[in-house]
Design brief:
single chain; about 425 residues; alpha/beta; seven-stranded mixed β-sheet; four-stranded antiparallel β-sheet; about 35% helix; about 20% strand
Length: about 425
Amino acid sequence: MKSAAGTGLRREPGRPREGGVTVNGRVLPWPRRPTVVVCFDGCDPAYIEAARAAEMIPTLDRMARDGFSAISAAAMPTFTNPNNVSIVCGAPPAVHGVSGNYYLDRETGREVMMTDATPLRAPTILARFSQAGAGVVAITAKDKLRKALGKDLRGIAFSAEHAASVSAAEHGITGVLDLVGRPEPDQYSADLSLFVLDAGIALLRTRRPDLMYLSLSDYVQHKYAPGAPEANAFMRDVDERLAALVALDAAVGVVADHGMTDMALPDGRPNVLYLGDRLDEAFGEGATRVICPITDPFVRHHGALGGFVRVHLMRPGVDREAVLRHVRSLPGVGLALVREEACARFETPFDREGDIAVVGERGRAIGARAVDHDLSQLAGERLRSHGSLAEQPVPFFVSRALTPEYAARARSSLRNFDIFEYVLNGTH
């Protein structure tokens, strides 16, 4: 990554804006004005509806009225890493290779947590524009994403989580805390997301990049239900910062990586099917291995429990069809597909899919074995999580009106990873 001096963020007046880039089959023009895409992590449509009823989101309401607003489909499984990478690649996991936060490497048999760009197999829109000479910025809440989203990016890429330790050599910038005017935020706080937005606003004011990607955290949505005072206050705070971006003459797109569902019983205990335990009982310990792709370093968010898991057959002679039948018979399982069917339906990479993909019913988490999940990490909070089909509908906003062609396209099919194309190609 180049230092800030070499990023082209301080563009000379009159710099040519012709041309564009082709990325994963999408032809994208050079931005006509500064373009900002915000990934509103965990923003289920219910948060929008509740905040709108409370009159907390005038900017998003104005986008819906004067620009464009719809419900789009997130990539499956509905986890953070696959969807953020899908958004910046403009493509599903089958193209870029990132199918979870956590996966089983079939060649080595090791369980791998995604903490860098190693699993990424496709170029990003951010990298391609930066290599073409555009000024590009990527700011993430979590550093685990920064390394993937900043792959091959010749510009600025840093996380709010580690904002105090940025360097020109690694991140393309120094002095982020001075730029934003406040200390590094706590990783388990609403302020982690607000810091991302404030840093983006500061860079838009001072350096006028051509393209920015701002990825927030879903801490608030994991902790608070739609309409809760804390959730509405967070929606208001984000909306105010979106207003600042629009006021700086940016074309703004807002989309979510996944929704959020309450996965707790009426008494507050997590509503979990421990699939690994049930498979051990039926087929013997070690015959199968259940991988929870939601697993990441932010365990207090979800206790590594979500609505999607992968089952791998670990012993020769284990009958896949027998395992599939047993999984489908268990209460709480909404859908179970063999590897080939899962890859075709969910557009996931074949080599990183399980022998069986399992999706929970709405409101039911699927885990491995009970001993694999430390529920004390939830600190007594209700389990609110994601990963299943229930969290696939997500909001999609563009600050400017769409052309008739793109408005028609949106009515027939709209994915969250279409956002860059709609903001760059589809607006007046």
